[in-house]
Amino acid sequence: DAKTTQPPSMDCAEGRAANLPCNHSTISGNEYVYWYRQIHSQGPQYIIHGLKNNETNEMASLIITEDRKSSTLILPHATLRDTAVYYCIVRVGPANQAGTALIFGKGTTLSVSS
Amino acid sequence: DGGITQSPKYLFRKEGQNVTLSCEQNLNHDAMYWYRQDPGQGLRLIYYSQIVNDFQKGDIAEGYSVSREKKESFPLTVTSAQKNPTAFYLCASSSTASNGYTFGSGTRLTVV
């Protein structure tokens, strides 16, 4: 799986958009970008994933650059409950995941304050 | 509701004792995984299993053992050979039809 680089920490004011960057310059053509988050002392939670098009769901939006070497996770209106560690992971899609497992880095600790 | 259950939430053991952590899922997922997390660190992969009766070592398998006799269950045994067993242990499952992994709520093991 391609390596990712994320800032260790970020701050965001409640109600503002949180934009979390991720660099993945060695991503392969068949690899997706996945985002998970982990609230303190809980298991990680899947947020969103994408291949090359921008994606949006009820939790967040994912913007992937045209060259696919970086991406940004956007939480449009951050709340205190969004304070967590956010992990950006690059790997093959679900249909091709046999024989592999998610590899987590240290992620970005997002602190949302009022 | 479908989900993945880890028990117990907190576990205390004396040094030198083996201990088994439970992980059960009713999501009909084929694959299951065990991760370890130390304070301030990311998750590290211990073992994973893609199908029943088959499993592979992850990055830090030494001192651990697993079994996968049933699709729903993937217990992890922390043996006395594991030098630093005190940690937060997370179990997860996935399938080719799922977008991502589903994680359990974790077991915090403390060895004294």
Quick summary:
Chain A contains no helices and nine strands. Chain A has strands spanning 9-13, 18-23, 31-38, 45-50, 55-56, 61-64, 70-75, 84-92, 108-113.
Greatest contact pair? A-B, 22 and 29 residues
Uncertain ranges of chain B: none
How many angstroms separate the termini of chain A?
37 Å
Please indicate the percent range of residues of chain A in DSSP E strands (runs of 2 or more). over 45%
Helices and strands of chain B: which structural class? mainly beta
Total number of beta strands of chain B: 11
**C-alpha Rg of chain A, in Å?**
14 Å
Mean of pLDDT of chain B: 93
Number of helical regions of chain A = 0
Rg result of chain B:
13 Å
Number of strands of chain A: 9
The separation of the N and C termini of chain B measures 36 Å
Helix content of chain B: under 10%
- The geometry of chain B reads as globular
Helix content of chain A: under 10%
Q: What sequence of helices (H) and strands (E) makes up the elements of chain B? A: EEEEEEEEEEE
Instruction: Please list the strands of the largest sheet of chain A in the order they lie side by side.
Output: 1-9-8-3-4
So what's the oligomer here?
heterodimer
Principal-axis shape of chain A: globular
The largest sheet of chain B, given as strand count, sense and whether it forms a barrel, is: 7 strands, mixed
User: Could you say which structural class the secondary elements and strand pairing of chain A correspond to?
Assistant: mainly beta
